[in-house]
Amino acid sequence: MENSMNTAVIKASQLVKTYQMGEVEVNALRGLDLEIRRGEVVAIVGPSGSGKSTLMNILGCLDRPTSGGYALDGIEVSGMNDDELANVRNHKIGFIFQSFNLLSRATALSNVELPLRYSGVTGGRKERARAALEAVGLEKRINHHPYELSGGQQQRVAIARALVNEPAMIMADEPTGNLDSKVGQEIMDLLLNLNRKNGTTLVIVTHDPKIAAQTGRTIRIRDGVVDMEVL
């Protein structure tokens, strides 16, 4: 039996994404190949216009490629419709954003419950949300609203929200971008510890070379293809 740590969570082959901007055709991805194994911590970097954002939208099941194949956790998703993509996204991917994206009028507990609601979970939602908040050290803040929390605490809520559905991978888009360097490092340490403890696959988009250097592999995107990989 193949070691589960060596199986691909992400397997993209010859991804092409073309946009029509008026009379101009923009080739954002140009036959990109990419594989990320279960349990890896990978940074994706690249300059503006490199195709990095387009790639992340496709990997996150927010968009479809013009051509090419993409399998997420063994499921071919490149040809799915919007409803099918939403279903896969809700069950397979946890998102962490630079701006936290928390509901301001909801408590930390309610924010973390949201993915469970979207996935159709009916029983034990509060218990699972509470356990996720405990895992990120916020057991004493579960009834606080985002405006009552520091930036670092809000990002911890966002991490708990990403974890609560036990996704195949977590995609973090500049997760430390709105935090000072000390708090940003605390968040990075938390993510790395979750990877070591639970084997959570992490895909981190970052412009910060210090963040990228802490991952197991850095993938640089340029001109719509993988330009370089650094272990």
Q: Can you walk through the features of this model?
A:
Helix content is 33%, strand content 29%. With 231 residues, it is α/β, with parallel strands linked by helices. The chain has one domain (4-230): P-loop containing nucleotide triphosphate hydrolases (Rossmann fold), CATH 3.40.50.300. It has a 6-stranded mixed β-sheet. 39% of the residues are buried.
Which features does this protein show?
Rossmann fold, 7 helices, 231 residues, globular, alpha/beta, four-stranded antiparallel beta sheet, six-stranded mixed beta sheet
CATH class, named: Alpha Beta
* Measured distance between first and last alpha carbons: 26 Å
The CATH superfamily bears the name P-loop containing nucleotide triphosphate hydrolases
Order of helices and strands: EEEHEEHEHHHEHEHEE
Please report which band the strand proportion falls in: under 5%, 5-15%, 15-25%, 25-35%, 35-45% or over 45%.
Answer: 25-35%
